[in-house]
């Protein structure tokens, strides 16, 4: 996923389904310098982590 789309998802009022290597996640923020995002799995909301943007994909239409 590119950083512009990730920021659009963060700014959206709608819940947009995103997965990181098949795991549903919530994107909290992005770091364009390192091309990473701060996310947490939806089933472990206290497990915040930095992941590469390339591993993020929208799930669904």
From TrEMBL:
The keyword Phosphoprotein does not apply. Pfam families: SspH. It is found in: Spore core. Induction: Expressed only in the forespore compartment of sporulating cells. Keywords: Sporulation. Its main location: other. Belongs to the SspH family. This is Small, acid-soluble spore protein H.
């Amino acid at each position: 996923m590119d950083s512009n789309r990730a920021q659009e998802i963060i700014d959206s009022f709608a819940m947009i389904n995103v997965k990181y290597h098949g795991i549903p996640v919530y994107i909290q923020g992005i770091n364009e310098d390192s091309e990473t995002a701060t996310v947490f799995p939806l089933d472990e909301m206290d497990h915040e982590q930095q992941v590469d943007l390339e591993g993020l994909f929208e799930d669904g239409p």
